[in-house]
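Notes, p. 3: input format for complexes.
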Amino acid sequence: MDPARLTPMPTSPISRRGLFGYAGAAGVGGAAGIVGGRAWGLSDAPTPEPPNRVLGQDYSPYGAQQAGIFTPQSQVAELVAFDLLPATDASALGRLMRVWTGDIAALMSGRPAAGDFAPELAQANVSLTALVGFGPGVFELEGLGPSLPAGFQEIPAMTHDRLEDRWNGGDLLIWVTADDATSVSHAVRRLVSDARPFASRRWTQRGFWRPTDASGAAVTGRNLFGQVDGSANPKGDVLEETVLSTDGWLAGGTQLVVRRIEMNLDTWDEATRDRQEASMGRRLSDGAPLTGESEGDDLDLAATADGSTVIALDAHARLAHPSQNRERRMLRRGLNYTHETVVDGAPVDTSGLIFCAFQANIADQFIPVQRSLDQADALNEWTTAIGSAVFVIPPGFSEGGYVGETLLG
Amino acid sequence: MDPARLTPMPTSPISRRGLFGYAGAAGVGGAAGIVGGRAWGLSDAPTPEPPNRVLGQDYSPYGAQQAGIFTPQSQVAELVAFDLLPATDASALGRLMRVWTGDIAALMSGRPAAGDFAPELAQANVSLTALVGFGPGVFELEGLGPSLPAGFQEIPAMTHDRLEDRWNGGDLLIWVTADDATSVSHAVRRLVSDARPFASRRWTQRGFWRPTDASGAAVTGRNLFGQVDGSANPKGDVLEETVLSTDGWLAGGTQLVVRRIEMNLDTWDEATRDRQEASMGRRLSDGAPLTGESEGDDLDLAATADGSTVIALDAHARLAHPSQNRERRMLRRGLNYTHETVVDGAPVDTSGLIFCAFQANIADQFIPVQRSLDQADALNEWTTAIGSAVFVIPPGFSEGGYVGETLLG
Ligand code: HEM
Ligand code: HEM
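Output follows (818 residues plus protoporphyrin IX containing FE):
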């Protein structure tokens, strides 16, 4: 173990108090923490400071939430959506969830899953997390309809959308992250292969993030426009209120929106730096609001200079700000992507953001914010949603339990 | 700086003596080493032990060789091949090389390149390397034909090839690696964008590798079959003799073969572990030869048990072994890939190896070995080359110089 990992991190993305409080309230077995290192997040014991280096950890598969929601961001991620096969009913889905739970428990601990074809690729200390979600199709299965969580729905069409079916929808989701792409692809392969009797792969999205700075300390990270992305994410008690459902079987779980958003880097590059910063309302250098000093400062939306607001009326960070959205928030965990295809025989290279946001209620949180961004966001000039999917993320599970048991059990 | 990086590494992939010897002989300015850390490889001072952690370094852009040949493997890589535009002559190519050299010198040091659109994405300590290569088309430019290096040629068609034009060829290559995909994509974007007046993108291949074990120590790494891949790479004096050209302007440079080789993981999984190991002649658990104890042992091709050779006659490691190939060797630096496309509306996910091999002379080294593998290799059952490209890799450059100057200067 790298001793540097055990030194305190200057800014924790998650308030310890907040998560600790929730763990007490929910009491679902153990905690999503680091195995064989220091605990991260939920714990019964006094929670230590999170580690300085977020690279190279084992996270516990067990806890009040599935790992991959509150755990620190890793470097590499793969999201796979599946279509249920016609024969898969609720009880078959329950069998798949038990199989996946076994896989996840092993792989997150750096152990091969049962029947693993390449057991040596199950490696420890790569910060592997694997999250399972249910798409709308699950609630069309006989008997499950009445369990549809409040506010869980597809995103209505937006003016700026150019959705392609190949990136849309899905009845099931797995979202695997780690600090190593070989480990991610090995875990994904195991999960896809075990799903074969029940569901077929619909789409795969691969993304990456840099969650540390040059010294290895945890930072917010940047998208491919160069913007610091994730700064204003909710923290502390607000984080839980924002993300965690209290609704029936989903209590302690959450809802996830995945939008594949293409970013036109060529036209972005043509804009001046001033215009780029004005479109966001934040500085490119350090992510601080144009009205503030440092990344953590809140926006001052009323501040004016030379007779107009410092943060433009169409600035993304203004329009997305809770004060403009009846205090609606979400937890964003974006991933950068680059993708290479051939169109009419010519190679086309695209870049963008796999926008991922957790919230308790999609209808009440993501959708209204997305509507106001769709109307006026200055960023729309350079960004286009080309894929859209929604998933219910069941609460975590403890040893002996399985993912989705509160719905399917 | 992480103190763990400064502790000695148990097995060095490169013999210090060998590289040190070469530096003395070649004397081309500085050395490809670590800036602000310990030197790696070539140096005038006594060479220290290489670092334990290979993650998170700055490598020097200057040295007898371009970085990315002898530097330790990083986690993420992107290879981009270009077609020269019709108007690009030798002197325009020289201008592009000067621009690229400036970009590379800045980006490898974690500094934005001149005119960088997203300067904050130029990050230090991500082990960035960027290598430039010349395809056959360069030697068709007026005046350059006589400089075609001995043995530099396309790979002849092999029986098992199923080459697709989209992965073939290229007049220029950049090969960028780092421990962070955002840094790689930023650097690639800069280099592609600066090439626009001279060359257009032909193909992009993205790959990944895990060059460390769970404790962070440098290891050989595994391909997606789960095999330890790279064990028998040449070391010490043999490494230089294998890789480095002594031929005219290319002296100190090398030649590179890039083969995109699809690996059928589904049928591989169906084979028993015994059969998988027999097809290679090495163990899956630790990469040791079936006749040996540990990864570093040489194969005993004569050893028999129950009347037949322990290492099968069609085993990949036997057929590729120098003793079977008149002592021909190469330095392999493979990258795993996963790739997702849509065929007839259905998502297709493929996996494989971006096989990359450096050698002094392609005609004399890669081609005969490839021919004997094509004839008899047991691995052929699961592997298919779908892309093929060759590049001359000019020697390194020192401050004030530029990549390719011995050809174009
Ligand atoms: C490619 C598209 C997008 C990019 C590049 C982008 C980028 C950013 C950046 C740089 C920030 C400021 C720093 C931060 O707080 O993270 C931000 C804030 C935010 N964005 Fe986006 N965003 C995109 C799409 C969206 C979408 C689709 C939504 C939701 C519908 C959204 C919701 C938000 C929210 C809620 C905030 C925080 C505002 C605050 O509390 O101050 N973003 N975004
Ligand atoms: C997907 C295709 C391939 C896979 C999975 C693969 C895998 C391996 C593995 C696992 C080894 C043993 C460990 C090591 O020494 O690295 C090896 C050795 C080797 N392979 Fe491959 N290989 C592939 C294609 C090729 C090709 C196309 C060539 C050259 C034409 C090649 C040349 C070699 C050589 C020279 C050795 C070292 C033999 C020795 O010195 O003992 N391989 N390969």
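The longest strand of chain B covers residues 346-359.
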